[in-house]
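User: For documentation purposes, I need each entry recorded in a consistent format: the amino acid sequence on its own, followed directly by the corresponding structure tokens. There are two entries in this batch. Please keep commentary to a minimum and don't merge the entries.

Assistant: Recorded as requested. Entry 1:
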Amino acid sequence: MYLVVFRNRKRADIDAAAYGADADAMEALARAQPGFLSFKSYTAADGEVIALSEWESEAAAHDWRRQSDHAEVQGRGRSDYYESYTLFAGTPTRVHRFGREG
């Protein structure tokens, strides 16, 4: 498994409808990519967003990063949507699971 964590803050003046349309389109496109496993997004009380995507491999995540429509929207993200962001990516060194049976 390969994880990508996208931590971001949006600009106060973004076009929310345009951002929403791009975000929906990118999620649908990512879900269709080979090697995609999951995507979830969480918004903190202070407005910071954490988007977490899981991929079968580093190669699958890199292919997604280089996908042409995704690359185009990434450019809009930098120019129009985000105040700041940090991206963390890698293979977890430890995974702990817990689950109740029954």
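Entry 2:
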Amino acid sequence: MKLIFANNKVNIVGAIDRFSLVDDALFNFQSMTADVTIDLNKVTSVDTAGVAFILKLVAHYQNAQLNVVLTHPPAQLIALAEISNVLGLLPLKE
């Protein structure tokens, strides 16, 4: 998995799962100065660890008093968030 930060946007590329989240550097989120868009268009798969990671990423920017929106969430993410009863915590773009 790779995080690409540019212009108040975070692009997540690849699988977000317990295997890809072993690198602590992934948790060093860049500062943003305006509302943040997290684009999940290039996510190939996600597991419950990935859901937790996305929630942590969202909370990081919300704690910085920024509005956050998730775009292009994969169906797998939605299903896992529903099962885990955390769908309401994901700021999905309508």
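Summary note for entry 2:
The mean pLDDT is 95.
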